[in-house]
């Protein structure tokens, strides 16, 4: 009452605005901020902006009416400022919460619509970009963050920021550090490809299946002729003038993920590796799931880029047919006694093979392994059956690759496991004698001791073996009380059968080396640029990927250090043999 009386006295003296306007404006801002935070903080699943505007006007305009008297005069003087305070406060609150809003997208879509309405009324665009970039740097782009989680947040950012800014400028400026950080992680491509072809429901897999098929385009061409010029709008003033609106406005998630590296080739090669692993783990030659994924990926990457993958899947169908024929013929032969089977106690064992066109498959991980004699005899019989079917063609066995179904009978338990050949061979030798040292077992297997010890650790983990002394292992026939229970049908955690990225790269460079030797033998001296150009013309076919000039320079310089090449005046030539 005293304040109202003071206000009426000042108004009669025409001094009300001079003494109170500034103080009232600060009080209104403080009240609006408190009201918005109280009503809207962490509430993302429903639109709240209109409700906040109405409730703020009702509360504040009534209080201002008590001070200034005339309601119409109060509305005319204070309503525009009140709306501005409300929009600005609401926008600032949502900007501080934007990281969490994007995490919860699409459930938080109403909050993004409210924020977009605020951005059209108040200039908070630069503050939003700076704040979100800093938040990503502090909370997301850290060594402890999982790559899959970073990719998931990036996908949510693509969807959410395109809703806020259809021009794509905001997404470009906020997520440039995210893209740069993902390029530094070695498992980024594998995570993206695995998510694309995963059976479980995730955003990338759903995008591949339900999204509109868009061929991944990495070019930076200007806007096409199909642009609707009637709907054209200029780019925001903070847009990068070196990039076109068309490339910036795309909302296709798969294209944006591929553009992190600017190359389809890396993703296609990673898919080949992943496809090879999955096909070789398919014990029943079933390729229905992979055929479906391949057809969907063709719509994105083009048929030519995935030709090798088509051949790999065709190999599986051919393997099923050939294997059925060879196995059936062997079973007919086994109905009667044969010299080959005399003394063979493993005639009931069934051997199935994958027959692969090695030119079209990625490089396999190399590992030495000597299989038991009865397995060698089985492989030889299978080879003879294959030759009788295919004439002059033959097979080159990869004994360390594949899957073996093993049944173990111990004193107090039975186990059924699916393991790799080297693990099956290791445990097979323990039925000949119950205790082995790492060195003696590696000699029998003709494998590296470090490799043998690593696989012995698998059987220790299953409770089948125990290390009685350093590098000495024995069979655990009976488990002691309190020992970890072992369950049947335990999944094998074997690593990929494909060679590592470094091994594949080295293999490809060795293919290039044979071409380089031929060039320098015939042409003498050549500069780096000429060698690279000729390799692109003649050597790329059949090699997994193209070698960049920087990679070629590193490879050639290594050959110089190995004294296989000499470098003088920027040109390379074959090193001369010593006297």
How many DSSP H or I helices? Answer: 23
Beta-strand segment tally: 8
Share in β-strands:
5-15%
Mean pLDDT: 81
Model regions low in confidence, pLDDT < 50 over at least 5 residues: 221-225, 485-493
What is the overall shape? elongated
Physical arrangement of strands within the biggest beta sheet: 3-5-4
Give the biggest beta sheet. Answer: 3 strands, antiparallel
Fraction of residues in helices?
55-70%
Question: Pairing-aware structural class of the strands and helices?
Answer: mainly alpha
- Computed CA radius of gyration, to the nearest angstrom: 35 Å
Task: Describe this entry's structure for a reader.
This protein is mainly alpha-helical. Helices cover 57% and strands 6% of the residues. It contains 23 helices and eight strands. The strands form three sheets. Strands 3-5-4 form a three-stranded antiparallel β-sheet. A three-stranded antiparallel β-sheet has the order 6-8-7. Helix 2 (16-40) packs antiparallel against helix 3 (49-68) and helix 18 crosses helix 20 (449-461). The model is unreliable at 221-225 and 485-493 (pLDDT under 50).
Keywords:
single chain; 579 residues; mainly alpha; three-stranded antiparallel beta sheet; elongated
Write the layout of secondary structure elements.
Elements: H1 2-12, H2 16-40, H3 49-68, H4 71-96, H5 98-103, H6 109-119, H7 125-139, H8 147-164, H9 169-183, H10 188-196, H11 203-210, H12 245-249, H13 253-258, H14 264-280, H15 288-301, H16 307-334, H17 373-390, E1 404-409, E2 414-419, H18 421-429, E3 435-437, H19 438-445, H20 449-461, E4 465-469, E5 472-475, H21 501-523, E6 526-527, H22 528-538, H23 549-561, E7 565-568, E8 571-574
Antiparallel strand pairs: 1-2, 3-5, 4-5, 6-8, 7-8
Helix pairs in contact: 1-2, 2-3, 2-4, 3-4, 4-6, 7-9, 8-9, 10-14, 14-16, 16-17, 18-20, 19-20
């Amino acid at each position: 009452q005293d304040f109202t009386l003071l206000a009426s006295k000042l108004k009669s003296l025409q001094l009300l605005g001079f003494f109170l306007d500034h103080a009232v404006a600060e009080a209104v801002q403080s009240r609006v901020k408190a009201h918005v935070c109280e009503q809207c903080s962490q509430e993302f699943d429903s639109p709240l902006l209109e409700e906040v505007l109405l409730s703020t006007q009702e509360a504040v305009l009534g209080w201002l009416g008590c001070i200034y008297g005339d309601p119409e005069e109060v509305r005319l003087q204070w309503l525009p400022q009140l709306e501005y305070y409300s929009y600005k406060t609401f926008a600032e609150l949502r900007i501080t919460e934007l990281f969490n809003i994007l995490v919860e997208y699409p459930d938080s879509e109403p909050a993004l619509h409210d924020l977009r309405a605020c951005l059209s009324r108040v200039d908070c665009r630069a503050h939003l970009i700076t704040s979100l970039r800093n938040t990503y740097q502090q909370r997301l782009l850290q060594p402890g963050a999982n790559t899959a989680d970073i990719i998931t947040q990036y996908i949510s950012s693509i969807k959410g920021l395109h809703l806020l800014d259809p021009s794509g400028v905001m997404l470009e400026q906020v997520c440039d550090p995210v893209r740069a950080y993902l390029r530094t992680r070695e498992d980024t491509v594998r995570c993206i490809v695995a998510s694309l072809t995963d059976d479980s429901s995730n955003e990338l897999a759903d995008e591949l299946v339900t999204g509109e098929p868009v061929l991944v385009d990495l070019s930076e061409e200007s806007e096409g002729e199909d642009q609707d010029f009637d709907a054209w709008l200029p780019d925001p003033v903070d847009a990068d003038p070196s990039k076109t609106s068309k490339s910036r406005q795309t909302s296709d998630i798969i294209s944006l993920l591929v553009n992190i590296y600017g190359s389809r080739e890396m993703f296609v090669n990673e898919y080949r590796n992943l496809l090879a692993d999955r096909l070789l783990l398919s014990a029943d030659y079933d390729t229905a799931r992979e055929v479906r994924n391949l057809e969907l990926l063709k719509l994105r990457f083009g048929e030519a880029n995935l030709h090798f993958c088509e051949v790999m899947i065709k190999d599986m169908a051919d393997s099923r047919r050939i294997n059925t024929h060879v196995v059936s013929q062997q079973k007919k032969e086994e109905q009667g006694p044969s010299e080959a089977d005399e003394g063979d106690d493993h005639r009931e064992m069934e051997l199935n093979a994958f027959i692969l066109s090695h030119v079209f498959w990625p490089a396999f991980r190399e590992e030495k392994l000597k299989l038991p004699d009865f397995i060698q005899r089985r492989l030889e019989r299978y080879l003879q059956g294959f030759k009788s079917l295919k004439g002059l063609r033959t097979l080159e066995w990869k004994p360390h690759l594949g899957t073996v179904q093993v049944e173990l009978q111990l004193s107090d338990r039975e186990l059924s496991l699916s393991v790799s050949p080297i693990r099956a061979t290791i445990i097979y030798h323990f039925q000949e004698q119950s205790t082995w040292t790492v060195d003696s077992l590696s000699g029998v297997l003709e494998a590296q001791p470090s490799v043998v010890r690593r696989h012995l650790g698998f059987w220790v983990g299953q409770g089948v073996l125990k290390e009685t002394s350093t590098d000495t292992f024995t069979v655990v026939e009976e488990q002691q009380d309190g020992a970890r229970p072992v369950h049947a049908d335990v999944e094998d955690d074997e690593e990929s059968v494909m060679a590592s990225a470094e091994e594949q790269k080295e293999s490809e460079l060795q293919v290039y080396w044979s071409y380089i030797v031929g060039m320098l033998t015939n042409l003498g001296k050549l500069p780096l640029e000429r060698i690279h150009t000729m390799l692109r013309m003649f050597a790329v076919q059949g090699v997994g990927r193209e070698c960049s000039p920087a990679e070629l320079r590193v490879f050639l310089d290594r050959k110089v250090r190995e004294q296989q090449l000499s470098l003088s005046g920027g040109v390379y030539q074959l090193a001369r043999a010593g006297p």
